[in-house]
Amino acid sequence: MIAEVSRFTNEGMVVTCDSKTYSILRGGFSRDIKIGDKIEITVVDKKNNIAILSENKVEDGRVLTLRVKEKSRVGFFLDTFGADDLFMPFAETTGKVKPGDRVVVKVMRDRKDRLFGSMRISDHVSNSHNYVENDEVIATIYSVRQGLGVFGVVDEDIDARLDANEMTRGYEVGDKEKFRVKYVLPDGKISLTKRERSHLQIDKDSVIIMDGLMKTGRLSIGDKSSPEEIFEVTGLSKQAFKRACGRLLKQGLIEVGPVEVRRVED
């Protein structure tokens, strides 16, 4: 049902629906939510008028971002913000996990039909879809690996990856972001990009380079610079940098050397 955000409290926030008020506990909603916003909720405790965002409802097949509440002898319990805690066995974790961490899990059922959470997202997706190159998708980031990039899940059932050289900012586990499909691998996994198609992106990349040159007259990167050096100075991949420089060269606006780019004076 749809409710309106009425106020925030030390415990979370209060929402109103059909003249009734419900509490959503702290941690169960985004900081972007404001008073007056309309949100979809699910009541999980009628006696105490506790609700959660419907997008956080614990159901088989869902991918949820939850906080690790406590550790037990055989796994962890995840806070579902009002509903019963969700159990995550040690065998379904990845990396080091401790209480207080934010994790992305896929909800599934065990042999006894009990719900549990798994951080091993890539082991529990079908990668069956009809997406093609240049389609827009929304991915939930479930892993950030230095030097490799970020790994996400699309539509709760498709594994996706944004390579490190495609990253334009830092990402955190649980982030939801819109991406473009760069290409689809034979096994159905999706390679992501934040960049627009080349003919749309190249002008923006050229502006980035020219903005830098207008400030200093030169950039300390060139044809022989490493991808890491180019990204640090411009935020562009080496391929995008070379495409944009090629266009600016043809326009007679810059000169490119092995380790620097200079603006051609009028």
From TrEMBL:
Signal peptide start and end residues: none
GO terms assigned for molecular function: nucleic acid binding
Domain TRAM: 57-121
Membrane-spanning parts: none
Pfam short name (any one): S1_2
Membership in a protein family: Belongs to the CvfB family.
Name of the molecule in the record: TRAM domain-containing protein
Organism per entry: Ezakiella coagulans
